[in-house]
Design brief:
By secondary structure, this protein is an alpha/beta fold. It is elongated and about 85 Å long. The protein folds into 2 domains: 209 residues, Spore Coat Polysaccharide Biosynthesis Protein SpsA, Chain A (Alpha-Beta Complex), CATH 3.90.550; 73 residues.
């Protein structure tokens, strides 16, 4: 087995982080290869960083503020030194004991990514419901061939991220992003544990952000290389609508209706043109942002310091 980097983003997990580190270390020592444990403190305010500094061995990446789980994962993955990367949540719900199985599955099936599938989730009913709705939308918009893209517990080959930068809430859609680039994706059922301490970080805001990012990935997957298919399609729809709107206007005109007294001509034209312009502008802006972050060597976050405890 090749050396392994464990990457764990943490935010206000002071109650869980010491036990999680102990579990990861216990599993890592059984792998029979070199390993590193990278924990990314995403601007915690509850003493998490103080606990992290007392642990060993660990590489601590401390973000300047709370940039979000995706940015924390991106920072940790970029810092990883070894060919295999295992990512997991910092709340103890992912079981580090699944890591060797994920790596074996990756090697045996010659895959680039193995995503954990929380088949028997230990979450509140409300969270399960939101997750199922999101998964159904994901299957419609972004078909990555797996059941549980939102599970952070995954095994990757490091080369998957050679030219990939993550932002927004896109950690949920990493398999889809990598599949678009030709990497081989698989999944394996993993253990999922109830939260023992701390508070969940999921809320309606994160859900909405994830939905927006899902739409962006759908667009990127289908139209990044051929944007005119999308933009031109909108233009055609507008022209067709304008044609029928014009027919309605002519109908009113031949009936003797004063066109200055009807809303059909201006309302239809202006509302749809303005709506289309904003819609298109949003997607073009997203493409420009990807180009900026991906090719200008910029990231959407800043790191305060890096501490390596051996």
């Amino acid at each position: 087995m090749q050396p392994v980097s464990f990457v764990v983003p943490v935010y206000n997990e002071v109650e869980n982080i010491e036990k999680l580190h102990k579990e990861i270390l216990g599993v890592a020592l059984t792998l029979g290869t070199d390993f590193e444990i990278i924990m990314v403190d995403d601007g915690s305010s509850d003493g998490t960083y103080k606990v992290l500094k007392s642990l060993s061995p660990v590489t601590i990446i401390r973000m300047r503020t709370n940039f979000g789980q995706t940015s924390a994962l991106d920072a940790g993955i970029k810092a990883a030194q070894y060919p295999y990367i295992i990512t997991m949540d910092g709340d103890l719900q992912n079981d580090p004991a699944d890591a060797p199985g994920l790596i074996r599955y990756l090697e045996e099936h010659e895959l680039d990514v193995v995503s954990g599938w929380r088949k028997n989730r230990k979450d509140p009913l409300s969270k399960k419901f939101v997750s199922r709705v999101a998964n159904q939308l994901r299957k419609i918009l972004v078909e990555d061939g797996i059941h549980d893209s939102g599970c952070t517990l995954k095994a990757y080959r490091k080369e998957c991220f050679d030219q990939v930068s993550l932002y927004g809430e896109m950690h949920r859609f990493i398999p889809a992003l990598l599949k678009m680039r030709g990497f081989q994706i698989g999944e394996m059922v993993v253990n999922h544990r109830p939260r023992a301490g701390g508070k969940t970080k999921y809320n309606i805001t994160r859900t909405l952000k994830g939905l927006v990012d899902m739409i962006v990935i759908w667009y990127w997957n289908r139209f990044a290389m051929r944007p005119f298919h999308f933009l031109g399609g909108i233009g055609i729809v507008i022209m067709i609508f304008s044609f029928f709107s014009g027919l309605m206007s002519l109908k009113e005109f031949f009936r003797g209706q004063d066109m200055s007294e009807t809303f059909w001509p201006m309302f239809t034209l202006l509302s749809f043109l303005i709506g289309a312009q904003f819609f298109i502008l949003g997607f073009i802006s997203d493409m420009l942002m990807k180009t900026y972050y991906g090719h200008a060597g910029q990231t959407a976050y800043t790191i305060r310091d890096v501490v390596r405890n051996k």
